[in-house]
Each structure stands twice: as structure tokens, then as C-alpha cells.
Amino acid sequence: MSGASLAAQSVGSSTPQRLGAATLTVAEPFSEVVAVAELTGGRLLVADRRERTFYVVSRDGKTAAPLGRNGSGPNEYTGAFGIVRLPGDTLALYGGSQRFLRVSPDGSFLDALTVPVAVMQAGGLAAPRGADARGALYWTGDVVGTIAGGFKRNLFQNIRRWMPPAETIDTVAPVADHAPAMHVHRFFPYAESDAWAVAPDGRIAVLSAAAYRLRWYEAGRVVAEGPAIPYTPVPITSDDRDAFRKLRLEQPAGMGRLVATPGEAPRPSAEAIRRNREAYPDEIFPSHKPPFVENGMLRAPTGQLWVIRSMPHGSLRARIDILGADGRRRAELDLPDGRRLVGLERNGVWLARVDDDGLQWLERYPMPRVEP
Questions:
Q1: What separation in angstroms does the CA of 91 have from each of 14, 36, 318, 344, 363?
Q2: 4-236+286-365 under CATH 1.10.10.10, yes or no
Q3: Environment class of residue 63 by beta-carbon count within 10 Å: exposed (0-12), middle (13-18) or buried (19+)?
Q4: Which letter does DSSP use for residue 235 in this model?
Q5: Residues 212-246: tens digit of each pLDDT
Q6: Reduced to 3 states, what is the DSSP secondary structure of residue 193?
Q7: What is the dihedral of CA 141, 147, 151, 155, to 10 degrees?
Q8: What pTM was estimated for this model as a whole?
Q9: Which residues contact 264 (CB under 8 A, 6 or more apart)?
Q10: What is the C-alpha to C-alpha distance for residues 240 and 37, in angstroms, rounded to an integer?
Q11: pLDDT (tens digit, 9 = 90+) per residue, 301-341?
């Protein structure tokens, strides 16, 4: 692999750090938080994918009101898939309909960035993962390919860049999605999927799931490479396999025919359960989980990279590896039980607590002090 080595070795802290006490708890729950972004004055913008709505949370966290509404007109959107911070603290909301809605730092709609047809034809559009200091937007393209009789998840994907209002897009870095030995025209459970993040200067940090190593890309090539990060692989158990099958059954595309008993919620039919088991037999699962979860890397305002580690089934505690720009692990961090990481903002760390009914409650914690 080309590129300069960034460090000779990587070491983590012997005792994981913990966050301090929460500084804010939002009083109203959400259904599926996929992105958050702080506004001026201490308010928070939240993208709830299941509700297909962007919400503005008050400074004190006591209220959450929809921003705009569903539709295809001005200041309207068909879904809530992502939020990206642009230069000048302007925010870009991806709400479908092949456009981004720009929002001012105070939460007011500005205008829409319509994606040109040529951009769509050249590689499509997905929820953006970041933007650089010039305002270029980045997302993963070429996720799914076609085969005779169906679809497959591509072994390699491309990170796409669009600089509005250009009529073209660029391919800036590749990412691997599956271990080659596992890739047989289907979506595999616990596949080795690289994670990535964008730096303000447009460089791309790609974290390899196969090697657990950070590489920096510029102009489509590796310009720097960190050390392999030591970790203990997490075995996949029968509980993991059953939980994965259950999740696939609960997804709309995976349910098949539903049956219902009066007074009870609809449930998958026996035929759907049988087909699910056939599609995901024990032998299709790898022996161990990848080192981190899918899309499991976020860039903090400090420039450090937070990696959400894979954990054993049933674990209530999420663990974070905090990496420096050189790819070395600076610290390990254990989140409070039952929380997941949803955002890193200047005023703190945003976590979601999921209750027994599946509702998500947002909490803000102070940013820990970690070596740069």
C-alpha cells in the first residue's frame, strides 16, 4: 500500500474513560434519530427517519417542533435522511426529492440545492456523510449492483463528491464492503464494511474493517496510513444469529406475509420465518464480528475520529475508540448503559437512550478531554 506510515504502533488506554453527567435531556422522544446538528442559541436540529420529519428542539430541551413539513413544495421534504454542516454554519438537510434544503444557523429555511440530472445519472444520490470547507458534499455511491435475476451488494463502493452547482460528480476514494470470500450475490450479516469521514480540507479518512487501520485519501490515492489498531475480535453466537434474523423479519422488505390475532400486533407468517431461516443459515455467518459497526465512525469538531466498536450480544454498554488524525488510538470510552452515539457537536456529545417501547430519548454530555 502506498503512502507514508503515520506511526509505528498504536496503544489504547488500559481503563476506558466515562462521560460526565448529562447536561441536557430532551423531554420528548423520537422514533429513529439518524442525525443531529446544533443551531445558534443552543437549539438542536434532529432528523427522525421513521417519522420522516426534521425537528427543532428548544434550548432547554422541553419542546420539539417540526421544521417544515412533508411534501414536494418549497421548504418541504419527503423524508429525513441526514444533516450536514456547510461553511458558515449553514446546514444542508437531505430530505429526498433529489435535493438538499439549506437552513441558516438560526434554523430558518434559505433555499434548495437541486441535484442536476447529470449527477443523478452519473452515480445517484444517497444521504451525505459530510462536507468540506468549500461546501462540497460527500456520500457513498455504487452500493448495489444488478445481476441476473436480482441485486447484489457491491464488493467495493466509491465515495462521491459534488460541488454545487456543478453538473458533474467526482469519485474521491474507494471503500470495501464485504470480505471477498463471503460475497456471493447477497447481503451478508456482519460484513466487513469500511467506515469513512471527511476532513475540512477534503481529505477522506477511510477506516478498514478488515485490518482495523486508518488510511487518508487525497485525489483518489492513499497519502498517509496509520498502524493496525489492536483489538479483541468478538465471536458471533447463536444469539447474534437469531437477533439478526429477527431484525430482517421486522424490516418491511423482509416480513413477507403477516398474520394477526385479534388484540395482538401483526407478526411474520410461518412461511416468512421459514424463508428467512433459509436465507440466513448458520453457515452464512462469519465466526467473528468486524471491529466496528456499519457506518461506525464520526469526526469530532476537534478533528479526532470516534469509532463505535462491535460488542457482544446483549451488552448494554457501547464502547468507543477515539483515534487521532495519525490513526493511533488516543483513548477508549464507555458510554452510559443503553445509549448509542448519534452526534458530536461543539457543545457536547449527543447520545440516544432507547426505552423498552423502542422510543429514543436524546441526551447531551460534556466532551471528554482526550490527548489531541
A1: 38, 11, 28, 15, 21
A2: no
A3: middle
A4: B
A5: 999 999 988 999 999 999 999 999 999 999 999 98
A6: coil
A7: -50
A8: 0.89
A9: none
A10: 32
A11: 999 999 999 999 999 999 999 999 999 999 999 999 999 99
